[in-house]
Amino acid sequence: MELAVPDMPPDSMVADDRLRLIFTCCHPALGLEAQVTLALRTLCGLSPAQIAVVLLTSEAAIAKRLTRTRAKIARAGIPYRVPADEDLPARLAAVCAVVHSSYTIAHTAAGGDRLTDVDGAREAVRLARLVHELMPDEPAPMAVLALLLLTESRRAARCDDAGDPVPLSEQDRSRWDSDAITEALALLDESLRRTAAVADPYQLQAAIAAEHARAASYAATDWAEIVRLYDMLLSVHPSAPAALARAVAVAESDGTAAGLAELEELEPDQRWHAVRGELLARQGRFAEAVAATRASLADSTTAPERRYRQRRIAQWAAQQGVT
C-alpha cells in the first residue's frame, strides 16, 4: 500500500511531510492498534514480523490486522487526507504510539548486523520533537520526547568499538549526553505537572529512564524506586518487556535470588533466557548460566547481541570447565 503525500489544508499546522502522513494514517474511525499498525507498515516500511516484535504480538496477527484495516478503509470510504487542525488532538495518542514504536524498533533491531539503526532513531527523535512543537501544551508528546531523549542520551556508551553491546553496569557515564538528559528531565517534570490523573505509560517509562540518568553510577541507582515505577507501569500497561525489566530491578534491589524468583513467573523468550543466564552466573551456577544463554541464541537476535552472549558463554564455560 503505497501512499503519496496528501494535499495539505490551507494554513495547516502540520508542515512536515512525514508527520503529515502519520497524522493522515491515524484516522479515529480505525482502532488505535489498527492506526499504529497501518502507519508502521506504510510509512515506516516495517514488515509484519518487525511490527509484531514492537507491538508484542504475532506476525500472523499483524497480517490479519492489516488486511482488516485496509478492508475497513475501502468499505467505509475513510478519506485519505490530512486532518484539519481541530481534528489533530483526536489522533494524538496514535501518533505518539507510532513515533515511540518507530524509535523502539530502531533502538534495538530484531535482527541484522547492527544493534541500533542510528538514522532511524534520530528520525524518531526528530518526529517526537515536531509533535511536541505542534502541541506544546500536551503532556503526552512531552513525555514521549523525554523518553526518547533519555534513551538516546546513552547511545555513545551503549556499544563498544566493534558495535557490540555494553551492559548498563559497565557503561562510561561520562559519554552520556548531558544536554539531552537536562532537556529530557525538564520535559518530564513539565509533563507530570500538567497531568492531573495517573501517570501514563510514556511518563512512567521516562521516569524509569530518569532514575538511571540521575544516578552518578550503577551502584548509586535507586533500584527500589525503579521497582516501584515498574509496578505502576505494569498496572496501567502490562507488557512482557516491562515485567522482565522489573525482574532485573528486583535482582538489583532485593538480591539475585529474588530476581530469579520473579523470572519464574514470566513466559520465557530469548531475552528472558539471557537475563536468567546473567543472574545464574552471579550465583556461581555457571553450567546453568551457559545453558540458559545458549537457549537465548535460538531465537532471532542481532549479530552484536549474539557475539556478546557467545563471549559470556565462553567465559562461564571456562570458569566451570563446561564445554
TrEMBL record:
Task: Kindly give the Pfam families that the UniProt entry links to this protein.
Answer: DUF6596 (PF20239)
- DUF6596 domain mapped to chain residues: 91-191
* Coiled-coil region list: none
- InterPro entries the UniProt entry points to: DUF6596, RNA_pol_sigma_r3/r4-like, TPR-like_helical_dom_sf
PANTHER family named among the record's database cross-references: BLL6612 PROTEIN, BLL6612 PROTEIN-RELATED
> What is the name attached to this protein's record?
DUF6596 domain-containing protein
